[in-house]
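fyi for ur records
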Amino acid sequence: MLKRPEPKNSTPRKRKLDKNALAKDVEQYPDAYQKERAERFGVCKKTIWQSLKKLGLTYKKTLFHPKTNESDRLAHQQKRQQYEKKR
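which gave:
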């Protein structure tokens, strides 16, 4: 007869990063770098990257600063289209 220990009850692991707090941080600082988020939460950049991925959030910077006016954006788009036509 083999001696087998009784199975232990599993308990959820305590995570270093609170996903709700990360989601609020993304809302508050949408253009923050992952390095900045990692420093705020006291974890490594990979942890931030993995957590954002699990939350379904992608890391994309905006092409224009949020305070850029619409006329500057249109002028840039027109210049970009002209450049693309020349290529």
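Residues 70-86 form the longest helix (17 residues). thats all i got for now
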